[in-house]
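USER: Note each token:
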Amino acid sequence: MQEVLAVTAVLAVLAGLSVPAVERWIRRQRLDAVAVALQADMALARSMAMQRRAVVTVCPSADGRSCQASSNWSNGWISFADADRDGARTEGEPLLSVRTGSASGVVVRLAATDPRYVSYRANGRAHLRTGAFQAGNWLICVQGGQDGLRLLLNAVGRVRLEEVRGVCS
């Protein structure tokens, strides 16, 4: 009987020690999944713009059909052929991809000249409606965490991921 109690006590201590590590691992997996999905969708939009020789826009979307005027991309995003080049989806502009809301507890915000959209031209570069180049970065964080990921959009339209420490709150 004493042996069973001792083994049970040891197992309880080990389980208690492993729970925080598992929670950190789950948060990191959620963070990575959202960041990789956004990176892949931006690369796909750039590629489609070059392939179609037309403007392709990516914007935040809560309903999967229209753009929302916000720097918050946490509810998801869409990409579409932007025939009128206005950075917002209008009736008749075909959807190319739809990404629903990010994983539970993951916040995605774009800091850019105009954080409501990213438009790729046929040359693969990101531009604003005015014709100026567009660059910026998405900060991707798990609520309550200090560390996160930053997805950087450079002047030629490419995106890359980097880890950031102590910037999320």
